[in-house]
Structures are given as structure tokens and as C-alpha cells.
Amino acid sequence: MTIYSGYDRFAWVYNRHWGQGFAQQVLPILENLVLRHLPAKARILDLCCGTGQLARALLALGYQVTGLDGSEEMLHFARENAPGAEFIAADARSFKLPDVYHAVVSTFDSLNHIMSLEELTDVFHNVYAALREGGRFFFDLNMEEGYKATWHDSFGIVEDDLVCVVRSNYNSEERTAQFDATVFFLQEGWQRSDVTLVQKCYSEAEVRSALEIAGFTDIRAYAHDEQRGVEELTREAERAFFVCQKPVKANSG
């Protein structure tokens, strides 16, 4: 299977303008739903780790962190941002790791880039195999209301060494979204890079079913409100936060 490398040409801009902001937003939610249940110095796999800002925050809290991403360029920045972590270039759909992790986390709608339910189920199987018994899996997804609310516009970033124009749209019939970025950046003269990224919208029922097929139990889905904090997921939520667990086998001895 080809390693997902769609972010290679966007990594420099992502590192500067996206990675840190969402890491700060998601960390309190992650602490509430997962981290407070983990032992000290727990091993955490940051799946689709991007440019490593969340890995850096988890290291600062004393966890042992492994980051995995399909983009070598994103990992280049991740190694600079979180030098104390281990980083692996691999695809979420096909990675194989030993069952040593207390938790696996995947944030900033990374798994929306998995474009079929079959492949999403493959990801969940791989995560299940990498978790210790009782380990927790936390991830977020853009939901349909989020695509309808925000994926229909354009915006730009203009700096001395960077110009970035982003256009996005959502196809409600196919439940697919597209993100197009045209980037001009100053590195040994002005250079241009054009990037197209696509995402798939999944329903809560589809995600729950895929998690159950992979073997997960205690599946919970939440939304987050800036005033009210973590709350049960509703149809109006723009982003969902899923938490589930790899069950502990009964002692047969």
C-alpha cells in the first residue's frame, strides 16, 4: 500500500500555522478523556502525528511518545519540535507495531483522510493490535455539520516569506471534502507549491460499527463546547471526539 504523503508539500506551512494551535486546543480534552486514566510515563502512540506539536506537549507531561505519519516532510519538522520522541514513517492503513502502548491518539481530523469505511476499519484493526489490554484509543473526526459550516470558503495568509491561498468545498451527496492550497514561499527565491487534500465524512453509526468490528469496547462519542466543555455528541456537533478501549481478557489460568 502506498504511504500517504499528501502533506509533504504543505508541511512547512502546516508547521507554522496549524500544528501548534490545534495541539493547544485538543490537549485539555485529551487530558479529560484519556490522560488522567494512564499510569505515569505511559507509552503513547501519536497516530498521524503531523509536525509533532502534540507529541512535544505529551513529552512535557512525562509520557513516552512515538509519532507515526506518512509524510516524511511532516516528520522532518516533528523531529525538530519533539526531539525526545520516536518517529516512524508509515501509513495508518497498514502499520504494524507491537502491543506495548497504553494509548493511541489521532487528532486534528487526521482520520478523515481515510477515504473508505473499509480502510478506516483497517486503521482501527492496526490500532487495536498496537494497544496493550485495557489501552485507550482517542481520535477526533470532522462531522457533517462541521463540513457544512466551514468547508465552503476561501482565505489567505500573507507574510514576508509566505503567501498561502486556501479554497475548500464539501460535496454532501458524496460526503467528501476537498482542500486546495496554493502556496508561494521564499526559499532561495520565490517558489510555488499546489496542494490538494481530500477528506471523507463518516456518521457516528459508521464509526461505532467499524470500531466494534476491530474489537473495541466501551465506545463513547463526545463534542466539545468552549463554555460547557466536554458533552455528549449530538447531530449538531461539528467535530466528534471518540474514545474506546481494548478489552482486558479474562484470566484463564
Tell me briefly what this model is.
By secondary structure, the chain is of the alpha/beta class. The chain has helices at about 10-15, 20-35, 55-60, 70-80, 115-130, 145-150, 205-215, and strands at about 45, 65-70, 85-90, 100-105, 130-140, 155-160, 160-170, 175-185, 190-200, 215-225, 230, 240-245.
Q: Mind explaining what this structure looks like?
A:
The chain contains seven helices and twelve strands. The chain has helices spanning 11-17, 19-33, 53-60, 72-81, 117-130, 144-150, 204-214, and strands at residues 43-47, 64-69, 86-89, 101-106, 131-142, 154-159, 162-171, 176-186, 190-200, 217-225, 229-232, 239-245. The strands form two sheets. The protein has an eight-stranded mixed β-sheet. Strands 6-7-8-9 form a four-stranded antiparallel β-sheet. 41% of the residues are buried.
Overall number of strands: 12
Q: Write down the domain tally.
A: 2
Shape: globular
Q: What is the gyration radius calculated from CA atoms? A: 18 Å
Largest sheet: 8 strands, mixed
Portion in strands: 35-45%
- CATH topology of the largest domain: the name is Rossmann fold
**What assembly state would you assign to the polypeptide chains in this entry?**
single chain
Secondary structure category:
alpha/beta
